[in-house]
Design goal:
The chain has 80 residues and is an alpha+beta fold. The protein has helices at 13-22, 28-33, 38-46, 67-75; strands spanning 3-8, 25-27, 52-57, 60-66. A hairpin with a 2-residue loop joins β3 (52-57) and β4.
Length: 80
């Protein structure tokens, strides 16, 4: 598993978000608003247990996680 880093221009943000969603990545914002522990998900990514993407747009940084791996980790009880 890996953490990729991507720097994008804010003009391309919508296009890049759609592309990431098409590839199976979901924003940390989605998980947070649905009651997932985002800090635990990030810890799993840093430990190399799930794939993540750190997207930098100007001064903003957004994290995206591979949806199927997050769901499997949740089912295994690795976070709540």
């Amino acid at each position: 598993m890996a953490i990729w880093q991507m720097e994008v221009d804010s003009r391309d943000a919508t296009k890049n978000r759609r592309e990431l969603q098409r590839k199976g990545f979901v924003s940390a914002n989605y998980y947070s608003s649905n009651g997932f522990d985002v800090n635990a998900i990030r810890a799993l990514a840093l430990a190399g247990k799930i794939d993540a993407l750190r997207c930098v747009m100007g001064k903003s940084t957004r994290w995206y996680y591979f949806e199927s791996q997050v769901e499997l980790a949740r089912l295994r009880g690795e976070f709540h």
